[in-house]
Design brief:
With 223 residues, the protein is an alpha+beta fold. The protein is built from eight helices and seven strands; from the N terminus they run ββαββααβααβαβαα. The protein is globular.
């Protein structure tokens, strides 16, 4: 697997145990299979950066792929809310969060690599709205699939770090890639609002409080 890491710096030797533990999937080395996405992420603070390229030998690694059919957006959300800083605004939000983590939690720390959605600040706010019963699950799921913020490949274990080989680094021009980064985020917000208008008042809309009360509702919807 060829993966890319967008950064302000050239990183020839990624080190296990470094980074921000409050990222989507906790401590790890965050990459993507898309070189273009990596270039955008490298310039997200409107400075030039680098798309660092690596070869990952995944043959002997355990990989948690949250895009597989046996997982839903609620599994992704349960991991996100265990790592990102989130303070429920209401008792219902706290109850929903407890239900989500108890019902859909995964032992994700046992895996060498995690593949799953990326949640920038926009998407984190969408997820927060869902937990507070402001938007239905259909709006959240559609926004995640259509927003094109990309899927992350996150190296979590020492074994995973030992399985990558540095190939090259390509300098990225913020004059080109910062506008692309902002445009992708703006498109995600626009699609979110459009999906919300379509689903918020639909008879079929299901909110998290509905799932808490009747978990079997998930059997009747396709996310």
């Amino acid at each position: 697997m060829r993966i890319f890491h967008g950064s302000p710096n050239i990183i020839e030797h990624p080190q296990f145990g470094f980074g921000n533990p409050k990222n989507d999937y906790g401590l790890g080395f965050y990459c993507t299979e898309s070189e273009e996405l990596a270039k955008e992420w490298a310039c997200q603070k409107n400075n030039d950066g680098y798309a660092n390229c690596y070869e990952l030998d995944a043959e002997k690694l355990t990989i948690l792929n949250l895009s597989e059919e046996n997982f839903s957006i609620l599994h992704w959300l349960s991991i996100l809310m265990q790592n990102r800083i989130f303070s429920p605004k209401s008792p219902a939000g706290r109850s929903n969060l407890d239900f989500l983590i108890n019902r859909f939690s995964i032992n994700y720390q046992e895996y060498d690599v995690i593949c799953g959605y990326r949640a920038n600040d926009s998407y984190f706010s969408f997820a927060s709205d869902f937990l507070e019963n402001i938007i239905p699950i259909q709006a959240l799921a559609s926004s995640m699939k259509l927003g094109a913020l990309g899927v992350q490949v996150v190296l979590k274990s020492q074994k995973a770090f030992e399985a990558i080989k540095y190939l090259k680094s390509e300098k990225t021009d913020c004059k080109i890639y910062f506008p692309k980064y902002k445009s992708r985020d703006a498109a995600a917000r626009k699609e979110y609002l459009e999906n919300l208008r379509k689903t918020a008042y639909s008879e079929d809309s299901i909110y998290l409080i509905d799932i808490v009360r009747k978990p079997e509702l998930l059997n009747d919807i396709k996310l």
